[in-house]
Every structure is written in structure tokens, then in C-alpha cells.
Amino acid sequence: MKKILLLSVVCILSSFVIVALSLTVGSNTVKGAGGYLPTIGKTVGSPAPADGVSTITIGVYPENGPFVVIPDYPICLNVSGSGNTLSSNTANTGSDGYTYFTIKSTVAETKTINFVHCTYGNVQNTGTVTFTVPPPAPTPTPAPSTTTNTSTSRPSSTTPSTTTTQQTETKPLDMTQVQINSQPLAKVKDTFTTTQDKPIVFTGTTIPNGIVTIYVYSQPKKFSVTADAQGKWTLSVIGLPVGNHHAEAEVTDPTTKKTSSKIEILKFAVKEAEKTQDKVASTTAAKRSNGLIKLIIIVGVLGVGAVLATAYIFIKKKRQQSRAN
User: What domains lie within the chain, and their CATH numbers?
Assistant: First the structure.
């Protein structure tokens, strides 16, 4: 009887399955000995930069013995830390026996990864992966400027050197030539004020046929005009929002298509335009006030005239009575 009972226990124990998981990062695979479990807490694979793009690939290999794959074993992956993106939070075993996960991160740190049974939630395996601070982006190298200067000398046995400097941009606006509403720029540069219904007229002189572009901030607006053959130009700006603004200008050479650097030409304030109804009401009130004043003057003159006439008649009658007596 005891032998039969012992045999039954052995059979029951042998029916339990030891599930082994092996972690793969890139081309590195770690398989643990003794129960087919990998070493706990081991950083697997080379670190990846925490740039949100680079990935670490993890392959999980569920085993029911040495290299005996359990098909369709439900494996879920949990990752500690922040800034993580997983390609899949749960997956089943693929045709090659591996269940694959990929991890991206924007936070440089060592992260703990736990593989659990998706149904029962018990931890099957634990490991770590590391994300490092990404290297700084390379600084672009500016393109070398092309220079060629040409000089003529007397013939000699040596070849004459030729070097010419090529202009890289158009000369900026001549600030001394700019006027605002026919006033010199220096006079109104930091004190100019207007209203929304009144235009700001910029005038100046630049290269012949140059394209003058004015940018108005804080709400960016762009205005352009082409100068005439003598380089004279006029640009009118109206309807800007209420508030403080500043204007910057640049010039484009129509021949070389090169543009000058921007320069600030004016700081100014825009106030709200007086409303039409207010203007009409103000004008009407003024007219009424003027009419009332005229009426008072007329009534006053007439009153004084009446008093004088009455006094004259009274005096005349008195004189006539005196003569009669």
C-alpha cells in the first residue's frame, strides 16, 4: 500500500511543468541553469540611447525542459521607470519559439523588467535593461565662403594670383534715408504713436529695383514693395492690432537674389480708432452747442434792443408831457 501511495506522489510531482524564460536583447541570449531560469537582476544586452527612437529587443523563450518550447504561452511584460514605449504589452509565442518585445525610452535609467503569466499574474522572470544619455547632435559645419580676387600686374615669369571676394548678402537698408509719415526716422524712432484707422507710411532709398520687406511684430505681419529704378520706395501699413509693436526690414537684390540681414527700424504703439458713432455724436453735440450759443446771443441782442426801445419811448413821452404843461 505504501509503495502504491509513493508511486502516486511521484507521478503527480512529475506532471508539474517548470517554465523557463530566456531573455534576448539584440543578439545576446541569456539562459539560466538549474530550472532553466535566467539570472535575476542581470542587465541583458548592450545599453541603448534614451532618444525615444532606439530600441532594445527582448525575446522570451518559455521552456518546459531543456529547449522544449511551450506553444502559445501567454507572456506579459512590465517595465519600471518612465518615458517607456512598448511594441506590445502582451504577446504569444511565435513560430520560432520566442515571444518578442521592443522597448524605447526617453529617460536615461536602468529599468527593471518583469515577465508574468498574463492569466495568473505571477512573476516568471526578472531582468534589467539600461538606457543611457544620448550623445549630443553634431554641430553642422558652415559651408566655406567662395573668394576670388583678381589683380593685374606686369608680365613676369610667375603666374599672377587671382582672388575675388564674392558678396554673401545684400547691404541692409540705409537708416538715414528712412522716413515715417514724412518725418525723419531719428525723430520718431521710439516715440511714434498712431491709431488703427491711420496708415503708417514708410519711405526710403535702397538699391535700384530692390525688394523691401517690412515685418511687423508682435503679431507677425509681412509687407513688401519694389523700389523704382532710382531705389526710391514707399510702403503704407494700416489696420494693425492695438498694442506695442516694432518693425524690422530687409532688402532683396533682384539680380543676385540675395537678401540682407534684418534690422529694426521702428518701435511704435497703435491705439484704438475713434468709433464713427462717437465721432457723429461728438460732431452733433458740437453743432447743437454752437446753435444754442448763437440763439442765446440773438435773444440777448433782441432783449437789449427791446429795452433800449422801451426806454426811448418812455423818455420821449415824458418830454412831450413836460412841454404840454
Answer: 18-132 (2.60.40.10), 175-271 (2.60.40.10)
Contact criterion met (CB below 8 Å) for 226 and 201: no
For the chain (325 residues), the mean pLDDT of every run of 10, in chain order, is: 52 40 44 37 64 81 62 76 76 64 86 80 77 82 58 48 50 78 82 88 91 87 92 90 90 91 88 70 75 88 88 85 77
- Which long-range contacts (C-beta less than 8 Å, at least 24 apart) are formed by 301-305? none
Pairing of strands 221-226, 211-217: antiparallel
Location of C-alpha cell 427791446: 306
Beta-carbon contacts of residue 44 (< 8 Å; ≥ 6 apart): 23, 24, 25, 28, 30, 38, 58, 127, 128, 129
pLDDT reported for residue 28: 38
β-bridge mates for residue 6, sequence order:
none
CA-nearest of 56, 57, 58, 50 to 105 is 50
Between CA 176 and CA 208 the distance in angstroms is 17
Is 0.90 surpassed by the pTM of this model?
no
**Run of H or E residues at 304:** helix 276-324
Residue 119: φ, ψ to 5°: -85, -45
DSSP string, 243-285: EEEEEEEEEE-TTT--BPPPEEEEEEEEEPPPPHHHHHHHHHH
Residue 23 to residue 285: CA distance in whole angstroms: 90
Cα gap 308→314, rounded to integer Å? 10
d(CA 243, CA 117): 64
pLDDT the model gives residue 95: 62
